[in-house]
């Protein structure tokens, strides 16, 4: 998908071709970048950024694990996100990618708050990531990295090598998406999504101790479910529990809520999106499109 013309780079708006970094940029060598993935939704009248403050909060927190500084205030970053939508005259649902990274810092592995960082934001119109009628998934042989090696709660460029190799294996085996197990062999998450299973009307999702990212869509689903009186349990999920689930779905900013209809070539229940999954998808769409006033506070108007 082509990127929108204007980007924001270190405090200024410029065209995409002007935003350049040197080949000595530390992040290219060592993955020392921090990013967020945010969506904004066009409902025919206005553009609404979904859970902007929560994304900004995680954006800053991710860098803290590694003392990588975000040298702009939350207010400046959130204004820049809104302004970049306006500047590109976006009147379609879109994906917003803010990121910061260690800049020109030689080959120094001792990254401190003083290491120079750059910050950028780009955006592009974005539709569905996956087929909303349901996808297939396969458990891959690669394990999700854990707090024993690097912090899974830091949304860092380098961490995504694990997601990339898992995706490659899943695609090679003919699946739409990968499911990674944690270091204990329990279900962790997908390369860019959290996972939920449904059993006997209850929603179950792995805890953060299973190396799952504290996903904002995961949190959204938990809150929606509670408001609908659907019980949510955060507990370890054994691999074989996937097969005996009534429903499975993935959650993520890019993927939104996506039904998984087969795992490891075994159909889940009827092999069709389940009732609770469909209910959550419907609620989510209503919320992001500003059709549900109970969740107004999660939306930031652009125009
Ligand atoms: C590894 C991983 N897990 C889960 C998610 C879902 O998180 P969110 O709902 O905040 O987009 C993402 C996407 O950001 C991710 O990269």
Overview of this protein structure:
The structure is a single chain. The chain has 303 residues and is an alpha+beta fold. It has 2 domains: 6-125, D-amino Acid Aminotransferase, Chain A, domain 1 (2-Layer Sandwich), CATH 3.30.470.10; 135-288, D-amino Acid Aminotransferase, Chain A, domain 2, CATH 3.20.10.10. The chain has 7 helices and 17 strands. It has helices at residues 26-30, 52-64, 74-87, 160-172, 216-227, 239-243, 275-288; strands spanning 6-9, 12-15, 33-35, 38-42, 47-50, 94-102, 117-125, 135-143, 177-181, 187-189, 194-199, 202-205, 232-234, 247-252, 256-263, 266-267, 299-301. Strand 9 and strand 10 form a beta hairpin. The longest helix is centred in the N-terminal third of the chain and has 14 residues, at 74-87. The two termini are 24 Å apart. Bound molecules: pyridoxal-5'-phosphate (PLP).
Task: Give the arrangement of secondary structure elements.
Elements: E1 6-9, E2 12-15, H1 26-30, E3 33-35, E4 38-42, E5 47-50, H2 52-64, H3 74-87, E6 94-102, E7 117-125, E8 135-143, H4 160-172, E9 177-181, E10 187-189, E11 194-199, E12 202-205, H5 216-227, E13 232-234, H6 239-243, E14 247-252, E15 256-263, E16 266-267, H7 275-288, E17 299-301
Parallel strand pairs: 8-9, 8-15, 12-13
Antiparallel strand pairs: 1-2, 1-7, 3-6, 4-5, 4-6, 5-17, 6-7, 9-10, 11-12, 11-14, 14-15, 15-16
Pyridoxal-5'-phosphate is lined by residues 37, 163, 189, 192-194, 213, 215-218, 251-253.
